Amino acid sequence: MAAPPTRKILHIDMDAFFASVEQRDDPALRGKPVAVGSAAARGVVAAASYEARTFGVRSALPSVTAVRRCPDLIFVRPRFDVYKAVSQQIHAIFADYTDLIQPLSLDEAYLDVTEDRRGIGTAWATAKEIRARILAETGLTASAGVSYNKFLAKLASDHRKPNGQFAVTPDMGAAWVEGLPVSRFHGIGPVTAAKMRKLGIETGADLRAKPLVFLQQHFGSSAEWYHQIARGIDERPVNPNRERKSSGSETTFSRDLSEDGDIEAAVLGQADEVWEWVERTGMLARTATVKVKYADFQIVTRSRTHPAPIATRGQLHAACLHLVRSVLPAAKGIRLLGVSISNFDKREEEAGELPLFDGA
Fold first, then answer.
1. In this UniProt entry, which residues are annotated as the site Substrate discrimination (predicted)?
2. pTM of the entire predicted model
3. Number of domains in the chain
């Protein structure tokens, strides 16, 4: 039997998406350091323009730190309804080229363009045409990675940012990975990267040099994945039907909460946001979880799985109150509360959850 064709995978990633939308819609912001988020004492940067990034301002950075790094930083409140509408425009463009689209967030997605639906000729040319259409139809730029698997395509999309693209071909994949720091690898976060450094693993070459048994001893079930990506191997297909595992909402408060009534009211507010998502998607869950972060950053969670799906707002309210009351009265101030649901029982058309932070 003939071997299957080499996959042609694109990773399309919008450039500083939230901040770029704000600069597009308000000419006064163009060319200036912009942060999407709250300037409050406990605010967090959700997205930063490239002008702000030159000062070291990044998503997830505390706002007070961001202002210290960039005194001229301009804060803009997020407009998630606008970001979602633009995301729908972008995904409509993707759909003209393939049905195999796997969204990762509002501003990035994998596309399998192995089947050349529009007869463009190459995946490289397809990525260029998609980026040109995004610019023409939205006024925003996107970067693209082109490769034979998802892992390499995602790495490649970051290689020529902003407003560029890069290809990793089958004959260069393994060698290209060897020269990269492992901290850039998707799926290796700061904690794992630090652990790898202590073990003498700083680059892809270092990771490839470690035998699988060594990786299993130190990284358990993740060892096989690390062993594969160090060789540029990733067999995961682009999955347009990837099932959602959970959905949630959380808030960091401008002041610590300590009164039972305030804490319960805040949890109900988070539950209401989650329930709005349920109403949009029709997805019902059996498990409710409440997350509590105290003023000293200690985190506790309380979960309960119900025998039947949580089918009404009132049931979700009751479930969340039951969970949060297990930590009341609060022994110390609470700076963050979150509510999430999981263990879905029903799945209809998915209406993606808004991410907390914007990507590159």
1. 18
2. 0.73
3. 3
